[in-house]
Design brief:
Elements: H1 2-9, H2 12-59, H3 74-84, H4 87-92, E1 93-99, E2 105-108, H5 122-128, E3 133-137, H6 145-149, E4 154-162, E5 169-177, H7 182-271, H8 273-284, H9 287-290, H10 296-324, H11 334-349, E6 353-359, H12 366-387, E7 392-399, E8 402-409, H13 425-435, E9 439-445, E10 448-455, H14 457-461
Parallel strand pairs: 6-7
Antiparallel strand pairs: 1-2, 1-5, 3-4, 4-5, 7-8, 8-10, 9-10
Helix pairs in contact: 2-7, 7-13, 8-10, 11-12, 12-13
């Protein structure tokens, strides 16, 4: 079946050209044979009819009444000898025979055949039925030894001798004509017929080929376009599946991170404000405050401790709230957002931050603005805690919907493989960026750390 697969792999135009070419050649061969055979028969018949008419006009007056005579008399035979042996007719005719219906030769220029009886051939039967029979071939009949010895094709003609008043064939004239030039005429007729058939077949095939090739090119172009569309749709489908998996993973991780955030907040409240409040509550139950005999100085000192603990608890609660609550940034530009985060970080850590902002893009969705705020805030906190706050820098670019924010430092760097999946900082940033369709990248080493987030225009619009 390899040939079938190779055949099916060809284009429609190629298949048509091969199959149509073979069929056209076969059709041309069959039609050429039929047409050339028909032309040959027509030429031979017309040539024989012309010769028969001429011979009949010359010979018929010399024949006796064949309805009453069974053999030619000597006068008629002598007249035929003289007529057939001289003039133009004598040059053209190779032999001449006069047949009776039973196969007896009544007259022949070969005297030894006169009076002999031969089997009635099909050609002789057709002639006695009233039809003119003409053949151009090498003689093959038993009585044609002399003609056959010439070794070349001759025009063999059987012409019925008809009774004038009844139209019945009473005898048959058989004569062989040299027919010089007839072979060349037949060859030219064959060549012309084959040429005409070949030209017609080739023209027909070429016209169909042009139509099929044009159609094939159209089909191939449509097939290629369809294949490209299918490939494009498949790629989009695969991309959508990947995005769906990313979104699903991001949702799962967001839920886990949310729980981690809650535990972290609970831990901060437990380890910070709750401890101070618990300490203040214990001091309230101390003997110094309960005992009425306590000195005012001791009582005041105890109350001062309680006030200090409660003040520290309130300060830590405010710090926790400040980190949780976002300012109103929905209507703020990227410049305002980044500047606000950087100023808050510098005030809190008392470390400088180099800031470069290039903004000329359209208004961004609120979710992207919040992501930028948290990204810069968390990245600067990490740069201060883990990088020592050495040469901190923020670079933000927003151009025609393309957003790129980069936070870097020149600290000692870290090993990214050491970051735990439950880490709130970097993992939380990555999941937040991924959930919005952006890209997140970390580069770290001995020269410092650079954290980058990017949103493309299409992704920002989504």
């Amino acid at each position: 079946m390899n040939w079938l697969r190779r055949w099916n792999a060809r284009s429609l135009a190629s298949q048509f050209f091969i199959a149509g070419g073979l069929i056209s050649i076969a059709a041309m061969f069959v039609v050429g044979l039929f047409v050339s055979h028909l032309i040959e028969e027509t030429v031979i018949h017309n040539s024989g009819a012309a010769t028969a008419l001429y011979v009949d006009s010359v010979i018929a007056p010399l024949l006796p009444d064949m309805q009453t005579e069974s053999l030619l008399d000597e006068a008629s035979a002598q007249a035929l000898d003289e007529t057939l042996g001289q003039g133009a007719l004598g040059k053209r005719l190779v032999s001449f025979k006069l047949w009776r219906s039973d196969g007896t030769i009544l007259y022949s220029n070969e005297k030894e055949l006169v009076g002999k009886t031969f089997a009635v051939s099909d050609k002789l039967q057709r002639a006695f039925a009233g039809s003119l029979v003409a053949r151009y071939e090498i003689a093959s009949d038993p009585e044609s030894d002399r003609e056959r010895a010439l070794g070349k094709p001759l025009m063999e003609i059987y012409n019925p001798v008809l009774q004038p008043w009844s139209g019945q064939a009473v005898a048959v004239l058989e004569f062989y004509e040299s027919a010089e030039g007839l072979g060349d005429s037949l060859a030219r007729a064959r060549l012309r017929s084959w040429g005409a058939v070949a030209a017609l077949t080739a023209t027909f095939f070429l016209v169909l080929s042009v139509l099929v090739f044009r159609g094939s090119r159209t089909i191939e172009a449509q097939r290629k376009d369809l294949k490209d569309r299918v490939t494009e749709l498949s790629a989009l489908l695969a991309e959508n599946r990947g995005l769906q998996r990313r979104l699903q993973r991001a949702s799962q991780r967001a839920a886990a991170l949310n729980e981690t955030y809650l535990r972290s907040i609970g831990a901060d409240l437990h380890d910070g404000p709750a401890q101070h409040i618990a300490y203040a509550s214990l001091r309230l139950d101390s003997d110094v405050l309960i005992n009425a005999s306590t000195q005012p100085e001791a009582r005041e000192k105890e109350l001062a401790w309680i006030r200090s603990s409660l003040a520290e608890a309130m300060t830590e609660i405010r710090n926790i709230c400040r980190g949780l609550v976002l300012p109103h940034i929905e209507k703020s530009s990227i410049t305002e957002i980044v500047t606000r985060v950087v100023e808050a970080h510098q005030h809190k850590t008392e470390t400088p931050v180099e800031t470069v902002i290039d903004e000329d893009g359209p208004e961004l969705p609120p979710a992207v603005k919040i992501c930028i705020y948290r990204f810069v805030q968390e990245a600067l906190n990490n740069a201060y805690r883990h990088g020592g706050g050495v040469q901190q820098a923020v670079r933000a670019v927003s151009h025609k919907g393309h957003v790129r924010v980069e936070v870097s430092d020149h600290g000692d760097g870290f090993d990214p493989t050491d970051v735990r999946p439950t880490s709130l900082g970097l993992v939380g940033l990555r999941e937040r960026v991924d959930s919005l369709g952006g890209s997140f990248d970390i580069k770290t080493g001995e020269g410092g750390t650079t954290v980058t987030m990017i949103f493309e225009p299409m992704e920002v619009g989504e």
